[in-house]
Amino acid sequence: MKLIKISLLLLILTSTSCQNNTSKSISDATKDEIKYAVGLSIRVEDDYTVVTVKNPWPNAKELFKYVLYKKEIVVPDSLKKYTQIQVPVKNLVATSTTHIPSIEMLNQENKLIGFPNLDYISSTKIRTLIDQKKIKELGNNQSLNTELLLELQPSVIIGYGLDNSNPTLENLKRNGLKVVLNGDWNEQTPLGKAEWIKLFGALFDQQKEANQIFEHIENEYQKTLELVKKSKNKPTILAGSTFEGKWYLPQGESWGAQFLSNAGGNYLWKKTKGTGSISLSFEEVYEKAKEADFWIGPGQFTSLHELAITNSHFTQFKAFKTKNIYSFSTKKGKTGGVIYYELAPNRPDLVLKDLVKILHPELLPNYQLYFFEQLK
Question: Which tens digit of pLDDT belongs to each residue from 156-171?
Fold first, then answer.
């Protein structure tokens, strides 16, 4: 479900003389605005901002650069080979639900004019705009409605790629539309994913606001990490669930596993290498995790009864017997989209607080779970 996993760009240029227009280049000394995201670089020059997207998909070898410039500014010759986009953008098309929260947090939801598979969107504000027919349905992300997009003529399309082959986006570029690749889904750290809001801040010419929002998220995350240091125990954790006969769990270096560790838990597969998922037999998981204190994220299951009737062996886990199973799949938007998939990458501070509340409730006595819910 790529729409739940997966967001590039900048260069603002202001030049007032012919000499500057032909000779000014990107300075190596310019400070990069990015702290955590490994796939995004934002360098602010005197007259423009340069954005480089490094990892829009795994093992990408090409760098993608974009120039954002304001009205009446002439882009220097040295930068004209890159995609140029005037900011603030008048409107845009997004292609992943992970793009939605950044747009909303910057109060720019009225600029969203198109999206593929609208039912996946959970945001209440944007669902209202969908109901008002202000956002167009664009079909499937891998085969976007090209005719409608050419009719809409968005200022920019925020796209993503699973690999270097996306014929639809290439066709749109050949037809003159601006496409910016967003690699938020390929980041492997909680704060790295969240920092991609700065890309949208650049597009909307709201760099200051985007920086402030991210700084708040970062500070809340760091404060919670400090709080976790007060905990005296590390409860053992099982994660994931079965699908078509195999049990899928996050690998030890993955985004999800990092949350469990940061929340003061002992994830039983924390030593496995990799950032994806592990596929194991039920027997392997049961042998290692039957006495785990908590079971976090049991896949599609939304109740203890559903687990029990699907596989009676689930009831033999300690976490089932003690009712310490917590899921994010129970909380959905109006049309069935799972809120966690849309918002969690953008709000790692809330994910971390949820997990700390579950594992160490005494550390956050007044906090109410946001994404997760205890199965009943």
Answer: 999 988 777 788 899 9
The pair of structure tokens assigned to 86 is 């005037």
User: Do residues 322 and 310 lie in contact, with contact meaning Cβ atoms separated by under 8 Å?
Assistant: no
Which of 375, 371, 373 is CA-nearest to residue 345? 371
Q: Render pLDDT for 104-144 as a digit per residue (tens, 0 to 9).
A: 999 999 999 999 999 999 999 999 999 999 999 999 877 89
Please determine, for residue 45, whether its predicted confidence score (pLDDT) is greater than 90.
no
Rg (CA), the chain: 22
Contact assessment for residue 95 and residue 157, using Cβ atoms and an 8 Å cutoff: yes
**The pLDDT of residue 19 is above 70:** no
15/253 Cα distance (integer angstroms): 45
Evaluate whether 195 touches 35 at the Cβ level (below 8 Å).
yes
**267 in Cβ contact with 257 (< 8 Å):** yes
Instruction: Give the closest residue to 116 by CA, choosing from 91, 89, 92, 93.
Output: 93
- Asked whether the beta carbons of 301 and 307 are under 8 A apart, the reply is yes
First to last CA, the chain: 26
Say which residues have a Cβ less than 8 Å from residue 169's Cβ, sequence separation at least 6.
Answer: 144, 157, 159, 161, 179
Which amino acid is residue 243, in one-letter code?
F
C-alpha distances out from residue 168 to 100, 165, 171, 332, Å: 21, 9, 5, 30
Count CA within 13 A, CB hemisphere, residue 12. 20
